[in-house]
Amino acid sequence: MHAMQYRITLPADYDMEIIRRRVATRGHLLDDFPGLGLKAYGIRERGVDGSPVNAYAPFYLWASTEAMNRFLWGAGFRGVVEDFGRPTVEHWQGLAFERGPAADRAPRTATRRAEPVPPGADPATAVERALAETRERARVEGVHSTALAIDPRHWELLHFTLWRDGAPPAAGDRFQVLHLSAPRLDALPAGRHW
């Protein structure tokens, strides 16, 4: 599994209905994209759920890196670049994926929490602690699914969770989920990925 996200910050007075229409008319195009585990079409609106910005911020879990490459170097990402310019694409190596009690219902909210692995800390110990947290979060009522990933270049752990409705206040940055494409959700292996 490979995790990926780009966050496009939009002007404070940007009409977020433009993004809603974009997702409503184009979101289904990845509903059967080979090798895509899931794509959560996330947005943040300034002043909603504590967001200081307007942003379009889709999050991906790829079942294969070949599929991620097909997307990035193909028509899918080209449309993003043409409409918004070329965003920075963050990506992380997948560590774990768990389905939650609400996995059979469409998520409406997502949370993202980045956590640095402190200098001098044993990375394996930090990962084990984060894995235990991921397993625990997967049992929380309202969780659709949750993933743990790491960027070993910057030693950053990423916790990404999809929720049926709202999320607890301490869960991380909140996103509204406008659509979920999940053509290969079943191809994302549950549990730790080694």
Structure explained in plain terms:
This protein has an 8-stranded antiparallel β-barrel. Helices cover 23% and strands 36% of the residues. It has 4 helices and 11 strands, in the order ββαβββααββαββββ. The chain has one domain: Alpha-Beta Plaits (2-Layer Sandwich). With 194 residues, the protein is an alpha+beta fold.
What can be said about this structure in brief?
The chain has 194 residues and is an alpha+beta fold. It is 23% helix and 36% strand.
Sum up the structure in keywords.
Alpha-Beta Plaits; alpha+beta; 4 helices
Itemize the secondary structure elements and their pairings.
Elements: E1 2-5, E2 8-10, H1 17-26, E3 36-44, E4 54-56, E5 59-62, H2 65-72, H3 75-84, E6 90-99, E7 109-116, H4 123-138, E8 143-151, E9 156-163, E10 173-181, E11 191-192
Antiparallel strand pairs: 1-5, 1-6, 2-4, 3-4, 3-5, 3-10, 6-8, 6-11, 7-9, 7-10, 8-9
Strand content: 35-45%
Structural class, from secondary structure content? alpha+beta
Secondary-structure element series: EEHEEEHHEEHEEEE
**Rg from alpha-carbon coordinates:** 16 Å
Give the strand line-up of the largest sheet. Answer: 1-5-3-10-7-9-8-6
Distance between the termini: 11 Å
The count of helical stretches stands at 4
